[in-house]
């Protein structure tokens, strides 16, 4: 099974650059085209939030138009820049985006995707008015019960905010609420192979709750490598990126969930290849 994860598009309405600098619509077009042409084909795409930059309806209309050519199923969780109501209205066929307020996760967008070799669990880490993100008691209880239902299937959890500090100073100002509770739940359910997030706009890997946590590069813009506490808030315009989570059985059981970072050319010829290895003269 091949799962692609994209994140942090930060779309503006048609014709507007994000922060007067980033052609986020152009980046998404290239990413969608890249996803459609990967070989072997991707089975499912996860979008981990910040679809729109300012939550305007025109941004979601553009997102719908630009994501429509995707050839594979798409699953979405919101980010702190999203407006959940407009997101749900724009993608009405994604019924999970419109949970009932008295639902099991307290009206938050939390859901499990069944039927694949890897079970996918989407979590909504966005509490209105709270930029830092976190999980309330209802969402944590829902997660614990949902993981308890199927302990035998490799599971990937996807959500917007990482439940850990990134060491990029300006991204760590507001800690993830109830991080320790989440950590204990993950420890209780060893089938969790991956907790994968967005929000930081650069690839990160660490151990969390005895599992492996990752952060996906951004589509719309990237945050530069600057691990000083006083790192200034800002971005660069590098190639857009994605993660490919791949359940691999090529060396037998147990299967391994691998995560590759994949970058996408944002202008033709940027990566300067393909150059075959086989005609290079090897030393004896
Ligand atoms: Fe973002």
Question: Explain this structure to me?
Answer:
This protein has about 280 residues and is α/β, with parallel strands linked by helices. About 20% of the residues lie in helices and about 20% in strands. The strands form two sheets. The protein has a six-stranded mixed sheet. The chain has a five-stranded mixed sheet with strand order 3-2-1-10-11, with no helix packed on it. The longest helix has 14 residues. The N and C termini lie far apart (about 40 Å). Bound molecules: fe (ii) ion. The site of fe (ii) ion (FE2) has 7 residues, from loops. The site of fe (ii) ion has 7 residues, from loops.
Spatial extent as radius of gyration: 19 Å
Shape: globular
CATH-derived topology: Purple Acid Phosphatase, chain A, domain 2
CATH 2nd-level architecture: 4-Layer Sandwich
Which molecules are bound in this entry?
fe (ii) ion
- Beta-strand segment tally: 11
Q: Stretches where pLDDT falls below 50 for ≥5 residues?
A: none
Helix content: 10-25%
Secondary structure category: alpha/beta
Spatial strand order of the main sheet: 4-5-6-7-9-8
Task: Look at the structure and give the mean pLDDT.
Answer: 95
Total number of helices: 5
Briefly summarize what is shown:
The chain is built from 5 helices and 11 strands, in the order βαβαβαββαβαβββββ. The protein has 284 residues and is α/β, with parallel strands linked by helices.
């Amino acid at each position: 099974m091949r799962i692609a994860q994209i994140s942090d598009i930060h779309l503006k309405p048609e014709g507007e650059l994000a922060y007067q600098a980033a052609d986020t619509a152009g980046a998404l077009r290239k990413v969608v085209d890249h996803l459609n042409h990967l070989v072997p084909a991707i089975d499912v795409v996860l979008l981990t939030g910040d679809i729109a930059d300012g939550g305007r309806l025109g941004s979601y209309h553009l997102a719908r138009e630009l994501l429509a050519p995707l050839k594979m199923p798409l699953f979405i969780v919101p980010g702190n820049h999203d407006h959940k109501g407009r997101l749900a209205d724009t993608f009405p066929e994604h019924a999970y985006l419109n949970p009932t307020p008295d639902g099991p996760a307290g009206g938050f967008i939390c859901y499990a995707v069944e039927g694949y070799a890897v079970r996918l669990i989407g979590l909504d880490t966005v509490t209105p008015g709270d930029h830092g993100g976190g999980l309330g008691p209802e969402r944590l209880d829902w997660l614990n019960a949902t993981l308890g239902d199927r302990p035998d299937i490799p599971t990937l959890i996807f959500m917007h905010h990482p439940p850990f500090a990134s060491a990029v100073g300006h991204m760590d100002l507001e800690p993830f609420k109830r991080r320790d509770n989440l950590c204990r739940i993950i420890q209780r359910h060893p089938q969790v192979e991956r907790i994968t997030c967005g929000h930081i706009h650069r690839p990160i890997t660490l151990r969390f709750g005895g599992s492996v946590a990752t952060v996906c590069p951004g589509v719309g813009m990237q945050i530069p490598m600057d691990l000083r506490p006083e790192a200034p808030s800002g971005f660069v315009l590098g190639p857009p990126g994605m993660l490919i989570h791949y359940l691999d059985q090529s060396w037998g059981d147990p299967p391994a969930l691998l995560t590759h970072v994949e970058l996408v050319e944002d202008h033709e010829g940027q990566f300067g290849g393909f150059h075959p290895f086989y005609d290079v003269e090897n030393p004896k």
